[in-house]
Design brief:
Shape of chain B: elongated
Strand content of chain A: 35-45%
Structural class of chain A: mainly beta
Order of helices and strands of chain B: EEEHH
Radius of gyration of chain B: 21 Å
Number of helices of chain B: 2
Strand order of the largest sheet of chain B: 1-2-3
Oligomer: heterodimer
Number of domains of chain A: 1
Number of strands of chain B: 3
Distance between the termini of chain B: 48 Å
CATH architecture of chain A: Roll
Number of domains of chain B: 2
CATH class of chain A: Mainly Beta
Radius of gyration of chain A: 15 Å
CATH topology of chain A: BH3618-like
Number of helices of chain A: 1
């Protein structure tokens, strides 16, 4: 199907790649369906979480593999149930400003994806993780 | 900031409309009960911060700038 995107123009996407958010992005309850887009030159360090319904709505995601420490937070059973039992991908919502070195990632509220079921959630972890973590300094800022 | 000390089962009232009651204390957790009119939006502070960060994430740098940055890193 053809969709309009914020940063990639018009794209012909496979409907099987659409993710349904069982726990929506906080503050965006009315949008459930998204697709994760990649840029060839950027690789898998960053991704674009593009809304299907609203072409202007797109979040930036950062791959937690960029963090120095392993990121393997404990996920509550409630959250796992929403994902139909498991997840195979984890992403951090990134705030990227003009000075990209200043990028902050939200380690407290990751995006979890179950690719085989096409389900996703944004969850708030019980454990104490920073909400604004300086990705490239790899230290907490506030 | 106003600082008040409360025991289990005690509460505070804000503006005659909102009651916040201590329902239980165990270890480092305090359970709060909040009675407020429907029009009052109650969220955990980290949730509000996540909402703000989501919003900030959706207003973001151009793809070209990010591409240039990644190229420069390699």
């Amino acid at each position: 199907m053809l969709i309009n995107t914020r940063d990639f123009g018009k794209l012909d996407i496979d409907e099987n790649e659409i993710l349904t958010f069982k726990m929506p992005m906080f503050g965006y309850d009315e949008y459930e369906d998204y697709i994760v887009l990649f840029d060839e030159q950027v690789g898998d360090s960053f991704a674009w979480l593009q809304s299907i319904k609203n072409s202007a709505l797109c979040f930036m995601l950062a791959n937690p593999k960029m963090l120095k420490k392993d990121y393997a937070p404990e996920i509550s059973n409630d959250t796992l149930e929403k994902l139909s039992g498991s997840f195979d991908e984890i992403w951090l919502v990134a705030v990227i400003t003009d000075d990209i070195k200043d990028t902050k990632v939200n380690m407290k509220s990751p995006i979890l994806i179950n690719n085989s079921k096409h389900f996703a959630v944004q969850t708030v972890l019980e454990s104490n993780y920073p909400i604004r973590y300086a990705l490239f300094d790899d230290k907490e800022t506030d | 900031m106003l600082v008040l000390s409360r025991k289990n089962d005690e509460s505070i009232i804000i503006d005659d409309k909102i009651e916040i009651k201590i329902l239980g204390i165990s270890g480092d957790r305090v359970q709060l009960g909040i009675s407020a009119p429907k029009s009052v939006n109650v969220v955990r502070s980290e949730l509000k911060e996540t909402m703000d960060e989501n919003k900030n994430s959706s207003i973001t740098v151009s793809k070209e700038k990010l591409t240039d940055f990644i190229k420069a890193q390699k």
